[in-house]
Amino acid sequence: MNDLLIRQTSFRLQSSTKQDLVVRSKLPLQANPKGIVLIIPGMAEHAGRYDDFAIFLAENHFGVYACDHPGHGKSIPSPAEAGTFPAKRGWQIMLENVRALYTYIRKNQPEIPVFIFGHSMGSIIARHFTALYPVYIQGLVLSGSFIMDPRVLNMALLFMNIKILFEGADHKSKWFNRTFYRAFNRHFKNSPTLFEWISSSREEVDEYVADPLCGFDCSNAFYLSLLKGIASTNLAEQLLTYRKTLPVLILSGHEDPVGNFGKDAVKIHKKYYEQNFQNLSLKIFPGRHELLHEKNKDAIYKFLLDWLLASLEIK
């Protein structure tokens, strides 16, 4: 990276919920960016993990903004508090944080097209956000997204409500968190860590495990908020009124257990197709859950850049 070509900043915003939102940005210095990519990370990770991808985009004339969720990354005072979450309206707070960042970008760079890139939990937020709010974006990228069977979702909601009743909203159960991660990890033999499902790259998995702001235990309130958010997204997507020319790219890893090994990506693509979206793309790469941290990430970066450039031409 040539530091003279990229302006890197970190700052705080406040959303309508009065929650501080920590943002990292990277912008090309030579001229106005061709487009802005707003990145929404997944659970138990942070905006800093997208720095490499953000630098690649900035070097190719795209600006990037990435935010930390409550209880994640720079939004917490210490790693020990990772995974804590507002007991009430947690999902709404994350949605409003994204809206605050989108509004900030639009205010400061009103003529620049904005793309939203959501990964895993962030992809659910991105889907809900674009279904709920009448904002104009140039394109939507869903990485590592997933679908929950309604019956399983209802059972999980009941279970988490019972856990909160007996343990409290702020309790972080090591047993439950380990069970959650093992459910994904059991698909891979010879698993030295709980996070082999993250990537097929040994180096990337070890880096994730060594990062105190990754793979942490989340509170009961977090899991309940996530489940409520999935239910709300399903409801909002029953009749999508968003403009049907919106470019949508759905990405998955062929070995991603979170997305049912690419099958959920196909279902999401079908859902958008049945609602007459005209610029849909589906790509299933070799790899696991975090394609931006895969062995073949350079090819994935290039694929995403080509898609962004092509999407700039679509009105």
CATH architecture, by name, is: 3-Layer(aba) Sandwich
Distance between the termini: 32 Å
CATH superfamily label: Alpha/Beta hydrolase fold, catalytic domain
Q: Which band does the percent of strand residues land in?
A: 15-25%
Strand neighbour order, sheet with most strands: 1-2-4-3-5-6-7-8
Shape: globular
Order of helices and strands: EEEHEHEHEHHHHEHEH
Strand pairing plus helix content: what structural class?
alpha/beta
Structure description:
There is one protein chain. The protein has 315 residues and is of the alpha/beta class. It has a single domain, classed as Rossmann fold. The protein is built from nine helices and eight strands. It has helices spanning 51-59, 90-108, 121-132, 150-167, 174-185, 202-210, 220-236, 263-274, 297-311; strands spanning 6-14, 20-28, 35-40, 62-68, 114-119, 139-143, 247-253, 279-285. The protein starts with 5 loop residues before the first strand and ends with a helix. The model has no long low-confidence stretch (mean pLDDT 94).
Write the layout of secondary structure elements.
Layout: E1 6-14, E2 20-28, E3 35-40, H1 51-59, E4 62-68, H2 90-108, E5 114-119, H3 121-132, E6 139-143, H4 150-167, H5 174-185, H6 202-210, H7 220-236, E7 247-253, H8 263-274, E8 279-285, H9 297-311
Parallel strand pairs: 3-4, 3-5, 5-6, 6-7, 7-8
Antiparallel strand pairs: 1-2, 2-4
